[in-house]
Write a structure and sequence with these properties.
Helix 6 runs parallel beside helix 7 (234-246) and helix 14 (494-514) runs antiparallel to helix 15 (521-540). 31% of the residues lie in helices and 28% in strands. By secondary structure, it is of the alpha/beta class. The strands form six sheets. An eight-stranded mixed beta sheet has the order 9-8-7-4-3-1-23-24. It has a six-stranded mixed beta sheet with strand order 10-11-12-13-14-21. A six-stranded parallel beta sheet has the order 17-16-18-15-19-20, with helices on both faces. Strand 10 and strand 11 form a beta hairpin. The structure holds zinc ion (2 copies). One zinc ion (ZN) is lined by residues 70, 72, 138, 160.
Length: 553
């Protein structure tokens, strides 16, 4: 029997974000991506959500390497967390490694960075695996599909992908090689991106955006133009720069990550802007506004990003006027709609004209839609299939698509975060789950538990009520209080009466309890909490956090 291959999905199956899987054979493990996710409104104060890597840490002595398929945060964002616990080489393209290098430096981990560059169509040993890396088109350059040549046959991981036949850099997804592998030796198992599995049709080519931008720029004669985009979307930046140059404008980069990524991409040779056509934001006052195209971050309404600061009138560099045109070359990621709308309103208040993807075709997705997924399935013809990279509904849609193309029900395996599967001579089987919990990170505080998050939600929704009482346990007396202090619960003037009622109820119940000389402080705190909670609920129908403090003396 040939050596089986085990895959443990640590994140990205059940959400868009924090992608991470571990693939192992003969006791040795390779990590495939290690990303993060950002906190939303339902996660107050959470900066990022990481995969629970404890299973990897428990098996650290068996982990040989990590492969980074591309440089999006949902694929490389948790690498500092991984490297803080173990040392290992990281394989990726030159651009991907440049982005990782910066991230590790920022985290003070550059000494641990053993970064190993791969090139398109390289075939090399990574840990126990014979790996082949193929080019793939996506909304960031230099991504790679990985084909693991194993004793169980080829395992193909699609990475995030679309099938762009006219990509900006001419580097197409290597469908012919996938087809060749599908034919001989055949693809035993495919793991493929499900982000747009519920969307019919195909995504438009990235190179179509350039023409739209150029004609939009032409209509802005005499005005300053500002374009917001993802700082990592180098091919979009290329097209913005080309449109700027074609219409006699100079590109000005605004925002730290924008400047850094533009520099990296130009150094690596994948972004071509002539020196005379690019300036730093420090020079903005010397330039004629009609001859400027500012490219900046903030297309998702991120709180501290350049465009958000402009919309709030807090930008150090630029004050907007009715002579400005702002283009959102992006689409709000689900969950960011409200933040983006707030930025748009802010821009409109300054008199700026705003264009977005709802009005003009200034954006296209980096993830393949149904027709593209069908094309991939039809050339790869996998024997087994596991949909990855998506919310649960996306995974189900991708599974249905595969079945619709003739795959047998039992050959399509739905997995979730934490699931472990094995590929053996008998095919794919579920082994069980290793957890797949979310790890919440809160600034420098470190890991946050569900308890703290629950408390934050309560505080945010209903505020808190504190009851402070000093007692003499031996004499069975209240010495001071109850003093009631609340925040975020009810408005004045009703507040005073409510607080007094809480104090009275707590006092009454505590007096009764204190008659029993055996009572202790914990028990009294419990009684105070109940009395306060009951009164609060009866009078206001709210559920603020109740914090009883009962002290002796
Ligand atoms: Zn991606
Ligand atoms: Zn992704």
């Amino acid at each position: 029997m040939a050596a089986p291959v085990t895959i443990t999905f640590l994140g990205g199956l059940g959400e868009i974000g924090r992608n991470c899987a571990a693939i192992e054979t003969e006791g040795r493990i390779v990590v495939l991506d290690c990303g993060q996710m950002f906190g939303g409104d339902d996660l107050p104060g959470v900066d990022s959500v990481l995969p629970d890597l404890s299973w990897l840490f428990d098996n650290a002595d068996r982990v040989d390497a990590c492969i980074a398929t591309h440089a999006h945060e949902d694929h490389i964002g948790a690498l500092p967390h991984l490297l803080a616990h173990m040392s290992l080489p990281i394989y990726g393209s030159r651009f991907t490694l440049g982005m990782i290098d910066h991230k590790l430096r920022e985290a003070g981990l550059s000494k641990k960075a053993d970064l190993r560059e791969i090139h398109d169509r390289d075939r090399l040993d990574v840990g126990p695996f014979d790996c082949e890396f193929l080019p793939v088109t996506h909304s960031i350059p230099s991504g790679n599909i990985t084909a693991f040549h194993t004793a169980q046959g080829v395992i193909l991981h699609s990475s995030d992908f679309k099938l762009d036949l006219t990509p900006v850099d001419g580097r197409r997804t290597d469908l012919s090689r996938i087809g060749a592998l599908g034919f001989d030796p055949g693809i035993r198992l495919m793991l493929a991106d499900s982000t747009n599995a519920d969307r019919p049709g195909s995504s438009r080519s990235e190179s179509e955006i350039g023409g739209v931008l150029t004609s939009l720029f032409r209509g802005q004669e005499g005005r300053r133009v500002i374009v917001a985009s993802f700082a990592s979307h180098i091919h979009r930046l290329q097209q913005i720069a080309d449109a700027a140059v074609a219409t006699g404008r100079v590109v000005v980069t605004l925002g730290l990550s924008m400047r850094r990524n533009v520099k990296l991409a130009r150094d690596v040779g994948i972004l071509r802007i002539p020196d005379h056509a690019i300036r730093d934001i420090e020079d903005i006052d010397e330039l004629d506004p009609e001859r400027v195209c500012v490219v900046c971050t903030g297309s998702q309404g991120e709180p501290r990003a350049a465009l958000t600061m402009m919309a709030n009138g807090m930008s150090k560099w630029m004050q907007l006027t009715d002579n400005d045109t702002v283009i959102f070359s992006s689409h709000p990621i689900p969950g960011n709609e409200a933040a983006v709308a707030a930025v748009r309103n802010g821009l409109a208040r300054h008199g700026a004209s705003v264009f977005h993807s709802g009005q003009v075709d200034v954006h296209t997705s980096g993830h393949g839609k149904q027709q593209e997924l069908q094309t991939l399935h039809s050339v790869a013809v996998p024997e087994w299939f596991v949909p990855v990279h998506g919310e649960y509904a996306h995974l189900v849609a991708h599974a249905e698509l595969a079945r619709g193309m003739g795959m047998a029900d039992d050959r399509v395996v739905l997995c979730e975060d934490g699931d472990q599967i094995v590929l053996s001579d008998d095919g794919v089987e579920h082994l069980g789950s290793v957890g797949g919990d979310h790890l919440y990170v809160d600034g420098t505080v470190g890991d946050l538990g569900n308890m703290v998050l629950g408390e934050r939600r309560t505080l945010g929704d209903d505020g808190f009520v504190t009851v402070v009482v000093h007692v003499d346990l031996e004499r069975g007396e209240i010495l001071a209080g109850p003093d009631v202090v609340s925040r975020g619960w009810v408005e004045q003037p009703a507040l005073v009466a409510h607080e007094t009622a809480v104090a009275d109820a707590v006092e009454q119940d505590l007096m009764k309890a204190l008659e029993d000389r055996d009572v202790d402080l914990d028990r009294l705190a419990q009684i105070a909490r109940r009395a306060a909670g009951r009164t609060v609920n009866d009078r206001t129908r709210r559920r603020p956090m109740i914090v009883p403090v009962v002290r002796e003396g």
